[in-house]
Design a protein that fits this description.
Elements lengths: L11 E6 L3 E6 L6 E4 L6 H11 L7 E6 L3 E2 L2 E2 L15 H5 L3 E5 H9 L4 E7 L3 E7 L2 E5 L5 E2 L2 E2 H5 L1 H7 L1 H19 L3 E5 L13 E3 L4 H8 L6 E2 L2 H7 L14
Parallel strand pairs: 1-4, 4-7, 8-13, 10-15, 13-14
Antiparallel strand pairs: 1-2, 2-3, 5-6, 8-9, 9-10, 11-12
Helix pairs in contact: 3-7, 5-6
Length: 251
């Protein structure tokens, strides 16, 4: 996987935080690196291990795909599958350079985007969801909307797959995707996440995403052509808690 097309003048390190692994890739590199995550991985430990794993890579800024809600560039809830200390953590101070944090589904969506109005649905532990309209990224929380006797996530996430079995799970995925397409009327629909490979056929009008697109999205986060819904989010993500630029922000 190459370092993406984003801002070629800026050296970016992309960190994709998952429930089982943390994957990283830097500008100019062809092969990503990874290390195990899990319930003992805190934000502080993640930064330390990333810096050690990327010690021979050069980077000026960092993009982080985070498996949970992000507000104004910072995680607001600790992920259920990881350790503590993520909410409100100052990643810019920890890395010593500007950092942008985006929901992991949104980062993969950004890397999958080709134009127009796109709906991204990530089939993984839960249901990630993002809309991108004319380069504006809008992370969404569709997973928690009511559906049958629970929520969308209860039926198309990992819990639903284990409870219902693959055959019924596929039917639920097709139904949920059809409902969301009808409601949101996107021009393009991408089904991504680790469990997309468990679908025998994609729902009509959809194309398959690729987890590697998360890296593409991470590089695009620093390109002026792409932006989150709130410009305040990007500004806050690249600064410390007091709003001042981190030590390497002006270099």
């Amino acid at each position: 996987m190459r370092g993406g097309k984003g801002n070629r003048s800026m050296k970016v390190l992309v960190v994709d935080v998952g429930g089982t692994h943390v994957k990283i890739l830097a500008s100019g590199q062809k092969v990503s690196r990874r290390f195990p995550s899990g319930p003992e991985l805190t934000a502080k430990k993640m930064v330390s291990q990333v810096k050690q794993l990327a010690r021979d890579w050069k980077f000026e800024v960092v993009s982080i795909g985070y498996p949970g809600p992000v507000l104004r560039g910072r995680p607001v809830v600790n992920p259920p599958n990881l350790g503590q200390g993520w909410a409100g953590f100052n990643f810019a101070a920890a890395f010593g350079c500007p950092v942008k944090v985006m929901n992991d589904a949104a980062m993969q969506a950004l890397g999958s985007y080709k134009g127009g109005k796109m709906l991204f649905l990530g089939l993984g532990t839960g249901l990630g969801s993002t809309m991108i309209v004319d380069n504006i990224v809008e992370p969404m929380e569709l997973a928690h909307l009511p559906y049958k006797k629970g929520t969308y996530e209860d039926y198309v996430g990992l819990r639903g797959l284990k409870r219902c079995g693959k055959k019924k799970w596929r039917k639920h995925v097709a139904d949920v995707v059809e409902r969301l397409i009808t409601a949101l009327e996107p021009d393009d629909v991408v089904i991504g996440g680790g469990n997309v490979k468990k679908l025998d056929t994609l729902p009509p009008g959809c194309r398959a995403g690729d987890n590697a697109n998360a890296f593409v999205g991470g590089f695009r986060m620093w390109d002026a052509r792409w932006s989150p819904k709130s410009s305040a989010s990007a500004k806050s993500a690249a600064t410390g808690t007091d709003g001042k630029k981190s030590k390497r922000a002006s270099t």
